[in-house]
Amino acid sequence: VVLVGEQRRPGLSLPELITLDATLAGERRVQPQSFKNHGDECKFRLVCIANEESDVVDYETLLQQGVLTCTDSAALEVLPATVWEATSGFDNDDVISQGSFRVWPAVQQLAPDGDGKLYIEYTPEHAANDELALYLLYDNCELQPLCIHAEAHAACIEIVGDLPCNGFERPTLTLTSSFDTQSLEVANPTAIELPFTISSDAELQ
Asked: Is residue 61 left, alpha or beta, with left meaning phi > 0 and alpha meaning psi from -120 to 50?
């Protein structure tokens, strides 16, 4: 009797790079990322292990941390026992937290053709161009890289063209009579929507 078993590999539709919408520095953005499992039932855990010198996540760092074991000189293999204990359950409240990023749930189990979702929180304090490098560690000893890219912009409204100072410390528009009108063109150089108001000095005092 010949017994043949076949199991499809995990096949999550997550892209290797997730780019978040532009964020205003000092604000909080939470962006969901949906995906589907096109393979067999799988369990995975997100891991984020950074190199202290360069903040670059690489296989060598994972190997040194004991998350990986080198069973062959040409290959690295993930040991599920280093990630989950045999008797451990899954905690959907697990969160990856590094820098301005938080990602959850960090541990998931998906049925074949099942749907999953990651929530990515980005809370930048200053204007920045940030990246978070992650790995999905499956329970079948496979790794899948995942990189999250985000940009934070400082609020900025620019005046288009040059305005005369007319003896004042800042550019001014001078009206010659009560019926005079002049136009002022402003621009938003950032990649985010910036609502703003124009107020006179008298209104601010």
From this structure: alpha
Residue with tokens 């539709």: 13
pTM value?
0.69
Report the C-alpha gap between 145 and 77 in whole angstroms: 14
In angstroms, the CA 190 to CA 192 distance is 6
- pLDDT averaged per 10 residues in sequence order, the chain, 205 residues: 73 93 92 93 79 52 59 48 51 78 91 93 94 85 87 82 56 62 74 72 53
Instruction: Look at residues 13, 15, 18 and name the one whose alpha carbon lies nearest to residue 38.
Output: 13
**The tokens of 184 are what?**
């002022």
Query: Which residue's entry shows tokens 């920045």?
Result: 128
Whether 98 and 46 have beta carbons less than 8 Å apart is answered as no
What pLDDT is attached to residue 18?
Answer: 96
The predicted structure's pLDDT at residue 75: 47
82-105 b/e (C-beta count within 10 Å ≥ 16 → b): ebeeeeeeeeeeeebeebbbbbbb
